[in-house]
Amino acid sequence: MSAKRIVVKIGSSSLTNEQGRLSVEKMSGLVNQVANLQTRQEYEVILVSSGAVAAGLGKLGWPRPNITMPEKQAAAAVGQGLLIELYQKLFAEHGIVIAQLLLTRSDIEDRKRFIHIRNTAETLMRHGILPIVNENDTVTVEQIRFGDNDTLGSLVALVTEADLLVLLTDIDGLYTANPKTDPDATRIQDVWEITPELEEAAGGNGTALGTGGMKTKLTAARMAVDSGIDVVVASSSEPNVLSRIMEGESLGTRFYSKQRLSSKKSWIAYGTRTEGRLVIDNGAVRALIERASSLLLPGIVEVEGDFHEGSIVQVVSQDGRLIGKGAVSFSDRDLRLLIERRQLGEKLHNYHEVIHRDAMVIQSREGIFT
Ligand SMILES: Nc1ncnc2c1ncn2[C@@H]1O[C@H](COP(=O)(O)OP(=O)(O)O)[C@@H](O)[C@H]1O
Ligand SMILES: N[C@@H](CCC(=O)OP(=O)(O)O)C(=O)O
Fold first, then answer.
1. Which CATH number describes the domain made up of 274-362?
2. Which residues of the chain have pLDDT under 70?
3. Could you tell me where the beta strands, DSSP code E, fall in 11-128?
4. What residue ranges do the domains of the chain occupy?
5. From ligand 2's centre to the CA of 86, what distance in Å?
6. pLDDT at position 139, please?
7. CA of 50, nearest ligand number
8. In a mutational test of the pocket of ligand 2, which residue from 13, 148, 155, 236 has the highest number of ligand atoms less than 8 Å from its CB?
9. CB count in 10 Å sphere of residue 315
10. Which GO terms describe its molecular function (predicted)?
């Protein structure tokens, strides 16, 4: 049997103490657990670790609320070094070599860079080196931020085609409401479907140190389960939480995946941005949904945006519903030209396929991509 690949994301609050400094005690507990899995032949672990901003602020003694973005980025630049230094020291005690991967959203959106990240991660893992990923906070501005490491964790799981994503946090799972404000909230053990009610329950903010609370965990879970990756949200302070999850114990909240999209389709659905829109007629909508056809030239009613061959575009119906996304075979200019020439009566059989079925994902009414 091939090794199970697990992405473990650890939130800031699980790595720091009350004063906001890195907690050696908490970190060494988690490192011991990861090392335990990593040294067993049947698991490959990739760590997605937050904590740079918190560690930097703690070290510098800067106050937490009301800091500017450059101050936060400066704190991350200080903190990331401290974080990786401590990880390197703690993993070295187990004979494990670590590697640091700092990523931005645009690194994942670009197909070539996506593949470089995947190849690097594969090479590291093949050599038994543990990749530790964080957002490259110092270079990211709002437009290219993942914004939270739950999303980053999910995208890393997608890039590396992991079997499981574990989101370790300061609470033992998703509750029916934020238990810090609602004493009647109860834990949800299994999630088969991410419903609007569930999204409502996860609406509250997280801790002072964390970024997104449960909301971002749910968004991350949706991406992963659609890509065929199960997700567990669990408490980092639960003893031996990782090996117990791997042994099948029901801890925290487990989100069950339904299908496995190919890596390319997951990337189209969740990994990248769209650069334009194709509005298609009802016949084409039916062909895509009911017959799983490729998108052909005659179904296109309108072309919007600036894009080139290979760009990812949205495919929408005439009433504005998102039908899917895919890699288009022509630039917007060429597509407009072809539509015009076709309308003038030219036969364009060779140019028929605008988006090939294998390079397209279709969205169901429940929001699931297939
Ligand atoms: N429905 C909910 N169930 C559980 N926790 C919730 C819920 N809504 C909000 N939260 C908050 O989310 C917090 C965890 O998110 P966050 O602080 O971002 O953690 P991390 O730093 O680990 O990513 C919990 O401590 C809790 O206060
Ligand atoms: N890249 C940031 C992580 C931000 C973040 O998502 O934090 P968290 O909600 O604690 O996982 C850092 O290292 O501080």
1. 2.30.130.10
2. 1-3, 141-147, 204-212, 350-351
3. 43-49, 98-103
4. 4-260, 274-362
5. 17
6. 83
7. 2
8. 148
9. 28
10. glutamate 5-kinase activity
